[in-house]
Design brief:
Layout: E1 2-7, H1 13-19, H2 22-32, E2 38-43, E3 58-61, H3 75-88, E4 92-95, H4 97-105, E5 109-112, E6 118-126, H5 128-134, E7 138-145, E8 147-151, E9 157-161, E10 169-173, E11 176-179, H6 187-197, H7 204-215, H8 223-235
Parallel strand pairs: 1-2, 1-3, 3-4, 4-11
Antiparallel strand pairs: 5-8, 6-7, 6-9, 9-10, 10-11
Helix pairs in contact: 3-4, 6-7
């Protein structure tokens, strides 16, 4: 099978050589989690979009510095592609920007959160169903976002939430899910990203708190469990 990775953004230049692009990180997460499949990356932010949803068997939308509500020429076609994938019943996963864009495409709403930035390692409470599927009691993942879903799309099921992020993990169908956090980010990348952006894109107090969470003695993420869950979602139902 072939997974299409829709990349609406790329890693900052200062970190690109060391860590690869967001699309690279997503592909690596799926590979180490057992997805032995073919991949194609579409540089969506440069206007590269598939001709239609049948070009690949399953799809994943990565993170981005952009907002799902930005007035950019490639965003409406990407939202339309999400609707076509959803209507066709194809597997689809979204991460951060992808999570937000899927929500907007399917009738939800995304805004800048009044509570500010969510960065560093965040813990999310899981529903009983999600606990069974992921094999953990709660979810610890890297986060970097100010936007978040504020209105739930019709028919979406909430699988995880936190006091900071009410709609942290959503499911639209057995083979269609999205996450606000970044399971593809290593703790090293998250740390370097916050150091790069602190005081500029990310306010100093938020960046400092995020770095503290990464430097804590018991700091960890559940990226491995999420990777396996995404592989099952995208590959076993394609």
């Amino acid at each position: 099978m072939k997974i299409g990775i829709l990349a609406p953004g790329i890693t900052p230049d200062a970190l690109l050589d060391q860590y690869g692009s967001y699309a690279d990180m997503c592909r690596n997460l799926l590979l180490v989690s057992g997805a032995n499949v073919e991949y194609r990356v579409y540089q969506v932010f440069e206007g590269e979009l598939p001709e239609d949803h049948l070009e690949c068997d399953a799809w994943l939308i990565t993170g981005s510095k952009y907002s799902a509500y930005d007035d950019l020429p490639w965003i409406p076609p990407l939202k339309q592609l999400v609707r076509e994938i959803h209507a066709a019943g194809q597997p689809l996963a979204g991460i951060c920007f992808g999570h937000q864009l899927m929500a907007e495409a399917l009738g939800g709403k995304v805004e800048k959160y009044a509570g500010g930035w969510g960065v560093g390692i965040h813990e999310y409470d899981l529903t009983a169903t999600a606990r069974d599927e992921l094999g953990v009691s709660s979810l610890h993942l890297n986060a970097v976002h100010q936007d978040q879903v504020v209105t739930l799309p019709p028919g979406a099921e909430v699988l995880a939430s936190s006091p900071f992020c009410q709609y942290a993990v959503l499911r639209y169908a057995p083979n269609m899910v999205s996450l606000q956090a970044h399971p593809e980010f290593s703790m090293a990348f998250e740390s370097d990203l916050l150091k790069l952006r602190r005081g500029e894109a990310v306010p100093e107090p938020a960046a400092s708190m995020g770095l503290q969470s990464l430097e804590a003695e018991a700091a960890r993420t559940d990226s491995q469990q999420v990777g396996a869950w995404l592989v099952k979602t995208l590959c076993e139902s394609a």
